[in-house]
Request: fold
Amino acid sequence: MLIVPLETPRLVLRRFSQEDLKDFFSYACHPQVGPCAGWKPHFSISESRQILKSFIERDEVWAITLKSTGALIGSIGLHKDDGRSVSVKRVRSMGYALSAAHWGNGYATEAARRVLRYVFSEMENPPEMISICHKDFNTRSRRVINKCGFKFEGVIRKAYEDPWFGVTDRWSYSMTGREWLQTVSADQQSL
Ligand SMILES: CC(C)(COP(=O)(O)OP(=O)(O)OC[C@H]1O[C@@H](n2cnc3c(N)ncnc32)[C@H](O)[C@@H]1OP(=O)(O)O)[C@@H](O)C(=O)NCCC(=O)NCCS
Reply:
């Protein structure tokens, strides 16, 4: 099982449940959240119900909740990387999205760092590498990725075409277990 409960100073990452439906819909319908991550804003609560069902069944997405209130504020997942032909045993691709009302508080970075720690120091049979990517204009996500210490791989020009942003480039990054250890020890030395 991939999705186990994880804690950070301000967050609890846990499995999604049916009870999350209303709160999930309320951020997933926001026009600025999904398109940046490549999915269309949810149009109806029944659409959110379907996606929530797949989150629960597929065991690869954590609900991001606030420790102080228990409120659901987003999701973070480790998926098959469609840009590589290797299996999830070797590489998993990280993706995240947060309710727009909670952007800019460092929550995505806190959640992503905790998931990396889980993968590379706590998980049984971890993947060899975590990959991540963002659309060229997504400076917020770029910043999260840089703060986590991912290595820049390069840019695939004209990688995406969608109704919201037209044609955009994909910036790709990754991190191996060894690189994660180097990042963590560099962070400790700078304290
Ligand atoms: C990307 C996303 C998850 C970031 O979440 P977050 O909790 O706001 O991220 P953090 O607060 O940890 O970090 C955001 C960083 O971007 C910076 N930032 C905020 N607005 C910015 C802007 N307009 N331009 C550049 N940087 C910006 C913040 O200052 C912060 O950096 P800092 O810590 O150096 O100050 C969130 O914006 C989101 O859900 N976006 C929509 C979905 C999405 O894009 N998912 C990722 C797909 S790759």
Q: What stands out?
A: Residues 33, 36-37, 96-98, 103-109, 134, 138-141, 143-144 surround coenzyme A (CB under 6 Å). Helices lie at 21-28, 34-37, 45-58, 107-122, 139-148, 177-189. The chain has six helices and eight strands. The mean pLDDT is 96.
